[in-house]
Design goal:
Shape: elongated
CATH superfamily of the largest domain: Response regulator
Helix content: 40-55%
CATH architecture of the largest domain: 3-Layer(aba) Sandwich
Number of strands: 12
Strand order of the largest sheet: 2-1-3-4-5-11
CATH class of the largest domain: Alpha Beta
Largest sheet: 6 strands, parallel
Radius of gyration: 26 Å
Length: about 350
């Protein structure tokens, strides 16, 4: 028989595990209810309250906790804080969370070794966060799996991980980048180059680049993918691609597009008369018309809202479909793309 109100007569005190077993819910659900974190369905809250009363589990303290209207805390783990993309994502996620009563605690990886990512994420879990959104594709899948076993977790702005099929995700649809290819092809370009970081540096970006490479190849438009390193001087790369006949270069991000534009200027190439250049991300301030960058705008606000909704449903033990959500954005056309030149010119020297 479970311990009751007479545990002072030799019976052990009731525990959260006892309450969870009697209520038929998980221990973490009981913990959230006891901590007053919210995110517990009305049905489960009623079961927990009945179990608490039956087991006499700290009734006064629990009554205060269950009746408290305090906001739950969510964790947001970002890859960087200095990047405009992640800064915009963090702001959008915090705004969506605030609309439903959550506070957000943010930490950043900064591309540290994964043992540091593990410590940061476990710290979030140990601080009784109701759930964690991970927007850092460099985190090892094993770390994601361990953290997800302790607290509801959703991946944001990254594809699902084959080794973690049960972890929900919200990401840009890599096939939506076809809008950039269509735009460049419609301008008459038949020799299009791709710049790409390695899959280790950005798995989600690599999934998009792989799709774009295959699509350009199938259309007979690929001038060749070119692997680049973060913060690399692109002068030599852009010069080589132009000499090889490329008339357009699709960059993996707006940051890289600006580096490519600077390299073209150093080479004396006119954009878009000699070569067209596109970016990807389209977040403020780079999407401003004063820059005139042709790019693809990721639906950051919509992704943040979708991730928050997924995480909230997981916290409340609501049914969530397996898999994840892929979202499309929109093409932003600017001054950095134009009709293909009649023929490739030799780069001028400045």
């Amino acid at each position: 028989m479970p311990p009751g109100p007479h545990n002072q007569h030799g019976r052990r005190p009731s525990t959260i595990r006892d309450v969870a077993a009697l209520a038929g819910v998980s221990k973490s659900t009981v913990s959230r209810a006891v901590m007053g974190q919210g995110g517990v369905s009305a049905e489960n809250m009623e079961k927990i309250q009945r179990a608490i009363e039956q087991l006499d589990f700290v009734p006064n303290q629990l009554a205060r906790s269950l009746n408290a209207r305090s906001s739950a805390v969510l964790g947001l783990f970002l890859r960087h804080t200095r990047s405009p993309f992640y800064a915009h994502l963090a702001g959008a996620f915090e705004e969506s969370a605030g609309e439903v009563g959550y506070e957000v605690m943010s930490l950043a990886s900064g591309d540290q070794p994964d043992d540091a990512n593990y410590r940061s994420l476990m710290l979030m879990a140990d601080m009784h966060t109701a759930g964690i959104a991970v927007a850092a594709p460099n985190v090892d899948p094993r770390t994601i799996r361990q953290v997800a076993s302790r607290v509801p977790l959703v991946l944001v702005s990254q594809m699902g991980q084959p080794s973690n099929p049960g972890v929900q995700y919200v990401a840009p649809d890599p096939r939506a980048a076809g809008a950039l290819i269509d735009h460049i092809a419609d301008l008459g370009h038949t020799s299009i180059a791709l710049l790409a970081h390695s899959p280790e540096q950005s798995p989600t970006q690599w999934a998009r680049i792989t799709w774009m490479r295959d699509e350009l190849t199938s259309r007979g438009l690929l001038a060749g993918p070119q692997r680049i390193e973060p913060d690399q001087d692109l002068t030599h790369v852009i010069g080589e691609l132009h000499r090889a006949g490329a008339t357009a270069i699709l960059c993996p991000s707006d940051w890289v597009a600006f580096d490519a534009l600077a390299a073209a200027q150093r080479l004396g190439l006119a954009v878009p008369d000699d070569i067209s250049i596109t970016g990807y991300d389209g977040v403020p301030p780079f999407d401003h018309e004063v820059f005139g960058l042709t790019t693809y705008r990721i639906p950051v606000d919509a992704m943040a809202a979708a991730a928050l909704e997924l995480l909230d449903n997981l916290i409340r033990d609501n049914h969530v479909e397996a898999g994840g959500i892929l979202m499309s954005g929109e093409l932003v056309t600017g001054r950095t793309t134009g009709p293909a030149p009649a023929r490739s010119a030799t780069p001028r020297t400045s």
